[in-house]
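Service request form, structural biology core

Requester: graduate student, group of Dr. S.
Request type: structure prediction, single chain
Budget code: on file
Notes: please return the result as structure tokens.

Sequence provided:
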Amino acid sequence: MILIVSELLDRSTNTVLDWCFNSLNIIRANKNDLKIVSIDYQKEEIIFQFREEFISSKNITSFWYRRGYLANDYSINNNNKDLEYLIYSHLDSEWNEIIRFFTQIFVNNKVKSLGSYQVKDQKLAQLKHAQKVGLRIPKTFITSSKEDLLLRKKNCDNNLITKGISASPSFTFDNISLEGYTELVSSEFIQSLPDTFFPSLFQESIEKLYELRIFYLKEKFYSMAIFSQNNLQTKIDVRKYDDSKPNRTVPYQLPKSIEEKLNKFMVNMGLDTGSIDMLVDRNNDFYFLEVNPNGQFGMVSTPCNYYIEREIAKELI
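Core staff response, request fulfilled:
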């Protein structure tokens, strides 16, 4: 039995499932589909409820955490909001301990697995780990001071950019969609800031030749170069897609030395899959930006004919 934890609208999961046509016993659990009923500590067995069906972890041969969450339905009705917050905080800690054991059971039972339920977008930790293995990163700092930011911009050889410390914000409010992107930081913008503001991440803007999207799958690299620097709309953030003039993308072979460093980095981060962002500057130096443990890979797989979805299916079957 193959267990996949994902989200209803994730197209990458759909495509991987198309390659699993010979495996009929597959459970694809989206939000609230799968619940933990009980855990037998001695037997190292979990009983799940998948909709109306009960499943033992002993019958699971492959597990892929693609994205999403296991259901942890609990509600508190208390008029004291402070007490309610404290109780929720405690229950969240309890749930996190359960999830840690949940993932360990699959390891102990030697279940084939992909993805990490617990490793999220730890951007600051990623940058430090990247440095430790010898990868270049942009000059990075966090500040909440307007005066400090002005001084750093003055002493910086290149422009500054800012982006989210964790995942980029994306939400809808009052029928308006709000998306967070990487943005240039101008002197005018800094002057408009209050003297102190929420601690924010800033980096030196690297003048790039091209950028790289790399999907990592168990020590294998599927890389694509994106020539985004020639389009003002995508020059700073490629996610500002220009549908009328799409960026040129081509398959790319990473230097062996970069692959070795990236592999060491991924092992240190506890990741066996992930979508890595890098860029190459005008001196042909490689810069690590970040890795999304649950990032999309169709944008690399399809234009480069890598058939990554087939390779993931092979790992699960």
